[in-house]
Amino acid sequence: MSTVKKRGPLLTAVVHAILIFLAAFQLFPLVVLFINTLRTDAEIKQTPLGFPEHASFINYAETWMKGSYAVAFRNSIFIGVCVIAIVIVGAGLAAYGVARLKIPGRNFFIGYFMMGMSFPAFMFIVPLYYNFSEMGLVNTHASVIIIYAASYIPFSMLLIRTFLVGIPRELEEAGKIDGCSEFGVFLHVTMPLSLPILATVALIVFVWCWNEFLWANTFLTVDDIRTVSTRFYKFVGEWSRDLAKIYTAGMIALGPIIILYLCLQKSFIEGLTQGGVKG
After folding, report:
1. Residues 133 and 250 in one domain
2. How do residues 42-90 score in pLDDT, each as one tens digit?
3. What InterPro entries does UniProt report for this protein, alphabetically (predicted)?
């Protein structure tokens, strides 16, 4: 017993040291990115790793205006909100169906959704572009909203289903005794209890939509409808010689996601851990 007590603090210290090292390793690029947004292009080219002589946020104002990031933010937020709404409704109903309803062949549907996630996007990009072009959906937000929703529903459904399996059936049966229909139980009993996992799914989907590049770069080629990721790609091409503005553009693109995660990390971790334990 005494040996275990002596090794406990040492093991704890080693684990903490490893975690601190990994955290520093992950944060170092972000710290360098942020510091370089406060420097001039000449300073960065002279010393890539260093502190600004006179820290200034002027790069943010210039990059925001020259990069048309106000329009890009509006487009990405609009697309993200629409996709979240579709995914929450579609994946929520599908998850409730396979978790609670006695649907014939529901295991087949679970396998079908899992198989759908295994196919790479490159398999669909050419036929989808042809079909969407025929329907007049190219260079519209509807094109990527449809693609994102279809892509993210399978994973979201499986994640929500894992959470729903752990909800006691007695709560739903009590709702039915009180006169609720099946949909009423889903809406008034199951969904309120599933808010942690729904918040987690919403955060994951929004981050995916914000960072996604392949589909957005293929279907959104007009400046007025570009998302943040494609706007950043074009901005880098236009200002490739100004490193300060490129660093700043990267920080502008990453900033909202970092802030969003820091604000919602408690709900995010709660949803994932409860879903994992209950599954």
Report:
1. yes
2. 889 888 888 888 888 999 999 999 988 999 999 999 999 999 999 999 9
3. MetI-like, MetI-like_sf
The pTM (predicted TM-score) of the whole model is 0.84
Query: Is 19 inside any structural domain?
Result: yes
- Domain total of the chain: 2
> Are residues 262 and 147 part of one domain?
yes
Domain membership of residue 73 as a residue range? 67-278
Q: Residue for token digits 């942020």? A: 34
Q: Are residues 93 and 170 in the same domain?
A: yes
Tokens 């947004």 label which residue? Answer: 37
Residues 22 and 118 in one domain: no
pLDDT tens digits, 97-139:
888 877 777 778 778 778 877 778 778 888 999 999 999 999 9
The CA distance from 151 to 46, in Å, is 44
Whether residue 113 is found in the same domain as residue 201? yes
- Same domain for 28 and 135: no
